[in-house]
Amino acid sequence: MAFFQFVQNNSYGVFTVNDTVCHRLFIEADTHDEAVEKAEELGCYWEGVSGGIDCPCCGDRWSYWNDRPVETDDIEAHAQNLADSFGWTSPDARIFYKNGRVSEIYSDGTIERKVIMWKKDDVYLHIKNLKKEN
Ligand SMILES: [Zn+2]
To answer: What is the CA(96)–ligand 1 centre distance, in A?
Structure first.
């Protein structure tokens, strides 16, 4: 099983943060194509500049050119290290596991765990709080 990374570029100088997207997304999937599909379910879009959505000088908000899985034995620790270095949004990173589990990684060391229901060809269903821990 592999995790693919989608890093948001703050086009127009702002990040989009909502229930699904934040600065950095890790999506567990068997293939990069599957991860791209799930990223789209979460609200990522591609070629935003040519689509007239994103700022031409800042560039596309989202891209999927990085098709190499993240190399790490501990995805949460990996995400935490990056959140500690960047911490540009709150949460800084979300890890979407294949089984629906979501870990939200904050730059203050907090990890919040939730569950989503993946739903194909539709907006995903809901997020349910499980627990918050430090
Ligand atoms: Zn710009």
So the answer is: 29
Ligand 1 center from residue 75 Cα (angstroms) = 31
Give percent of the chain with pLDDT exceeding 90.
Answer: 78
**Six token digits for residue 95:** 């890890």
Question: What single-letter amino acid sits at 51?
Answer: G
Of the ranges 22-26, 78-82, 90-94, 123-127, which one carries the lowest mean pLDDT score?
Answer: 123-127
- Given the structure tokens 């989608």, which residue do they identify? 6
- Contact partners, residue 134, CB within 8 Å, separation at least 6: 109, 110, 111
pLDDT the model gives residue 123: 46
Q: Can you read off the two tokens belonging to residue 48? A: 């935003």
Read off the tokens for 113.
């765990």
Beta-carbon count within 10 A of 93 CB:
28
Give me ligand 1 centre to Cα 89, in Å: 18
